[in-house]
Each structure stands twice: as C-alpha cells, then as structure tokens.
C-alpha cells in the first residue's frame, strides 16, 4: 500500500496483447457456466510464492521496488506461472520518476468479455524492504487463485482478468495508467474490480471495503460463514489500486488486514492479537519479510479471494 498522499490447464487461443491491455473482447463463444464451488486455496502454495518473492528481493538489493531489478524479476516469476497455466498474458509498460514500470495483465480464455471480473494487487515494494506483506501477500493470493482457475478448468459466465500493478507505492501509477488508457466502452465492460493489498498482516484485522454493496456483501457473507466478524476498511481508503477504478465508475471492493494503525482493545478481543500494537509493525520497512505474515489471516483471505472470484463471475 502506498504512503498516504494528502492524508488442468486449458489452452489459450492466440489473442493480441493489445486487446488485453485495452479491455477489448477475445473472439470465441462463451463456454457454458460452471456451478462448481470455489476451491480451497492452499496457504502453503501462497507462502511458496512469498518465499520466491523474498528470494528475488534478497538477490536484488533487498527490495522489489519500481524501476529496480527486483520488480522486473517478480513480474517475470508471476508471468511464467500464468503462461504455463494457459493464460494469455500481456505486459503494459509506463514511465514514472524516470524509470520504466510494468503492469502484468492475464486473461483467462472464455466468458462474456462484455462482463469482466478483475482481481488485482500491486506487485511492487517500497525501496526499504522486500514487501512480503505489502504487497507480496495480495499478489501471491491473486496468483494462486488464478492458478486454481486453471487447475479447475473453470468456465464462468463472465470473463476473468487478473492484474499485478507496478509503482503503486509511488501513487497508484500503474493502475491509474491502465484505467486511463481504457476507452469508456472498455471501462464499462468491467463489472467489478477486486483489490487485495496487505492481507497477511502479523497482528491482523479483518477489514472489508465498503464501496460496491454487492461486492462488499460477497466478502461479508464469506466471513460470516467462518464466524469471523469484519469491520469496514478505512485506513487504506483511496490509497490503493481500487481508487482509479472507482473514480472511473467501476464497481470495486476488496480486503485488508491493516497497516500502521494500532489495534484497539475491542479489536483484539474480537480477533485476537495484541491491543495497542500496529496491525503491521514492519509496514514499509526492511523487516517486512517472510516472518512478517500471519498464516491464519493469509489463509482466510486467500480463500476469500477465490470465493469472490467464483461467486461474482458465475
């Protein structure tokens, strides 16, 4: 999350990358809808991606920041996984601060491309650390959900698109670039954008964005099924990659486990953890490494990502 500013695999058909980046349609009839329930997302698989992101940061100056080799290596890692799983991927390039940045867009073949469900996360870290919770956690959960779509051979009614954004930490640069380069017609095709930024905080809360009511209800229903209380997300409001989509009129929602704010006594009584301590004491620092993750929160939220993707795309 950026610093506050003022405040089975299916085989993909050949599809031009420019269509992915502009939100254009992919040729071909939509497959029959699936009624399958969302799969359980193995937290061990999500953590394996985090281990890889940590190794990339360690090998590249301790970070995965915009314009640094660790970011591009992170993007290459995610892209290779998606390509092998049958996605059609495209890299969108932009410039910020004199450095080249990249977004990665991955489309799952099939579904109605006039109704696109997107799930995304920012892949960059700050320059001061490896960014494993912020935002390896969201990036890894979205990646593993995308791979679960492939393993299941899922054929939803709507079209599925996944995204990993660059330069979020510099002011939502990558996601804003993507949204600004969509035509009005292609923006209108996105029926919902789901954002996942910091979903494994070590002293976690369970926060749900209160933007689009239908998306909000989807996440709340999931957590109600677990018997876990949620609260409305306020700390990161407008500070992550859902903001450009929301400004463009796209319905948005998402999950968050907290950053630098302190957990209250009431929240500790509800969720466990330590009152008076930040949700993430390593926020934007060098200790945001693989030790800076709460496995229970990561597991629950990863399953919630898949639940929402399945529910909203059927």
UniProtKB/TrEMBL annotation:
The keyword Secreted applies. Keywords: Disulfide bond, Hydrolase, Metal-binding, Protease, Secreted, Signal, Zinc. The keyword Protease applies. Gene3D superfamilies: Zn peptidases. GO terms for cellular component: extracellular region. Residues 103-308 form the Peptidase M28 domain. Monomer. It holds the Pfam family Peptidase_M28. SUPFAM superfamilies: Zn-dependent exopeptidases. Its EC number is 3.4.-.-. It comes from the Bacteria. One of its GO terms (molecular function) is aminopeptidase activity. Its cofactor is Zn(2+). One of its GO terms (biological process) is proteolysis. This is M28 family metallopeptidase. Residues 1-29 form the signal peptide. It is found in: Secreted. Belongs to the peptidase M28 family. M28A subfamily.
